[in-house]
Amino acid sequence: MIKEIELTPTVNLEREMSTQKYYSYYIVISGIVIFLLFILQTKFVLGQDLQLTQFFIPLILTVLSAVLLNKLKSSYSQLEKLVGTDPLTGLCNRRSLEKNISMCIENYKRYGVKFSVLMFDIDNFKNINDTYGHPQGDRILVEISDILKLNSRITDCCARWGGEEFIILLPNSDINGALTKAENLRILIESTVSSPAKITCSFGVSDFYKDDDSIDNIIMRADQALYQAKYMGKNRVEFMDAA
Question: Does residue 212 contact residue 242 with C-beta atoms inside 8 Å?
């Protein structure tokens, strides 16, 4: 916010029977002076001219401060988005996902709004990197990320958890809705991703329980369900409840 825009007389200098007075106009945003302008009043300046100056300069600076504030807000918003985005895929990163899960936990505790998490990774991804090279692996990661973006609700948070592992946060979705979502994505990825080798993914699904006390609980169950899907032969969906 704009904290203050002030007009303050400062230094008085006397030279040869004439008085020179400096007026300083400055903008302070969040306690930081970001613009400073000095106006020099001399005996040659008529009183009316000085009154006009004292009226118009603060008005001009008020407009200028609004422009600067909008620029600062825009820059901050862009920086915040950059900090919370995975640079390769354009999905949310771990930091951003954890922030969104924390908000879902608060909504659950206050309003009882359920949410679910699905975790998945690309089967045999190391073999793809080793055989076809990391650029091919990166291309596959980007293609799968694009599939997630095109097939998710605006309220969903799709994140690259690390390496070839992804997590999707599904607000206002129970375990059945999350299982359906995971199965649809599994089929879509298997049938559409272009690669020299067949691309499949294994999914683990969990939802939040009232006795959960942190993000770690739901992530751990989704991870255990993913491990179960790998153990059961890969390219499948499994879920884990709190029991």
Answer: yes
Is 2 within 8 Å of 66 (Cβ atoms)? yes
- Measure Cα distances from 154 to 90, 167, 175, 184, 231 in Å: 15, 15, 19, 17, 33
Q: Is 4 among the catalytic positions?
A: no
Scanning the chain, the segments in alpha helix (DSSP H) are 47-83, 94-111, 125-132, 134-150, 175-192, 215-231
Number of CB atoms found within 10 A of residue 206's CB: 27
Domains of the chain: 2-83 (no CATH), 94-239 (3.30.70.270)
11 three-state secondary structure:
strand
| Residues near 51 by beta carbon (within 8 Å), at least 6 away in sequence | none
- pTM score: 0.70
CB atoms closer than 10 angstroms to residue 112:
8
Q: Indicate which residue of 4, 164, 190, 238 is catalytic.
A: 164
Q: Each residue of 97-148: pLDDT tens digit?
A: 999 999 999 999 999 999 999 999 999 999 999 999 999 999 999 999 999 9
What are the DSSP calls for 56-94, one per residue?
A: HHHHHHHHHHHHHHHHHHHHHHHHHHHHTB-TTT-SB-H
Q: For the chain, what is the radius of gyration of the CA atoms?
A: 29
